[in-house]
Amino acid sequence: MKNDNLKLAIQKDGRLTEDAVIFLRSAGLQFENYKQKLFSSCRNFPLEIVYVRDDDIPDYVATGAVDLGIVGQNLINETKP
After folding, report:
1. What does pTM read for this prediction?
2. In a domain, 1, yes or no
3. Which domain holds residue 55?
4. DSSP code of 69?
């Protein structure tokens, strides 16, 4: 994953996973099956999708390991300083 692509973290397993994938695909993004991967490269946009535990996503965004993350409102509320 060493490149200049945008990096997006989404939940690997859980209630938001399928909705996030549907949302990204409805935006026209084409990427590999996410169930057997740690990350997927988007074929038609400079994007890497990283599949991680939902609790880790805010930390990955905060430290710059990824550029963006999709999480639920409850996780945002729990991680506010």
Report:
1. 0.84
2. no
3. 6-79
4. E
Strand ranges in 1-81 using DSSP code E only, listed in sequence order: 6-11, 39-41, 47-52, 68-69
The answer to whether residue 45 sits within a structural domain is yes
Cα 68 → chain centroid: 7
CATH at residue 11: 3.40.190.10
18 contact partners, CB below 8 Å, separation of at least 6: none
- Which residues have C-beta within 8 Å of that of residue 24, sequence separation ≥ 6? 8, 10, 31, 49
Q: How many separate domains does the chain show?
A: 1
Q: What string of pLDDT tens digits covers the 81 residues of the chain? A: 457 899 999 999 888 899 999 999 999 999 987 677 889 999 999 999 999 999 999 999 999 999 999 998 665 656 666
